[in-house]
Amino acid sequence: MYNDQQPNPGSWQEEEQRMTLPPKRGNGFSTASMTAGTLSLFFLVSGLSFPVGALGILFALLSRKGDKMDPQAKLGCILSIIGLCLGIAIFIYAAVTVYQNSFSSISSFMRCTRAVCDCLWRVFNL
To answer: Is residue 89 a contact partner of residue 99, using CB atoms and an 8 Å limit?
Structure first.
């Protein structure tokens, strides 16, 4: 050490007090919940909103630490519930629509099915 630099006995304590903690990392389950909630809204028409929404709710519940839930997990849970409910509503609407129209156009459906089967039969028997 140089003569002009004298060690300060309390300097390590002052340095420790000035140090800041690293930012708190997010919970992986809360991130997965938010991603699944967003995807459940994205997959509404395809029918995948049921399993993806259910997974989003499950991940939100698994991300809880004690009684607290991260805001990200809350948002993921809300998005998952919305996606799940809208997916169920769209499925019920589609089922009712198909059921109502099935008796009026059963012959056209059978003709279309027969044409598709004949086409596939020709393609794979060549």
So the answer is: no
Model confidence pLDDT, tens digit, residues 2-43: 555 555 555 655 566 566 666 566 678 889 999 999 999 999
- Residue for token pair 């393609």: 123
Among residues 32, 49, 31, the alpha carbon closest in space to that of 40 is found at 49
- List beta partners, residue 65: 68
9: tokens are 């006995």
Beta carbons of 72 and 24 less than 8 angstroms apart: no
pTM above 0.70, yes or no: no
Residue type, 17: Q
**Residue whose entry in the numeric block shows the structure tokens 């056209």:** 108
